[in-house]
Amino acid sequence: MSTLASQLQQMERHHSVFENEVRKLPLPVCRIFGAEHQPSAVSFTATGQILNSCDAQAVAERFAQTVKASGNAVLRASATVARISGKRVAALFSGGPAAGGHNVLCGLKKMLGANNTLLGVKGGPKGLLQGKLFEITEADAANILNTGGFDFLGTDRTKIKTPEQFDQVRKVCIEHQLDAIVIIGGDDSNTNAALLAEFLYSGIKADGSGVQVIGAPKTIDGDLQVPGLLPISFGFDTATRIYAELTGNILQDTRSSLKYWHFVKLMGRSASHVTLEVALQTKPAVTLISEEVAERKLSLDAVVDMIAQAVISRFRTHGHKHGLVLVPEGLIEFIPEMNALIAELNDVLALHTEGFAATAADARIEFVAGHLGAANATLLRKLPAYVVDMLLAERDSHGNLQVSLIPTEQLLIDLTRDRLKAIAPDVPFGSQHHFFGYEGRCGAPTLFDAAYTFNLGLTAGALILAGKTGYMASISGLENGGEPLAIPLTGLINIERRHGKDEYVIEKALVRTSQPAMQYFVSRREAWAADDVFASPGPRQLWGPAAHQMPMTVALNEGAASLLFKIGA
Ligand code: FBP
Question: Pick from 58, 146, 45: which is nearest to 457 by CA?
Answer without folding.
Answer: 146
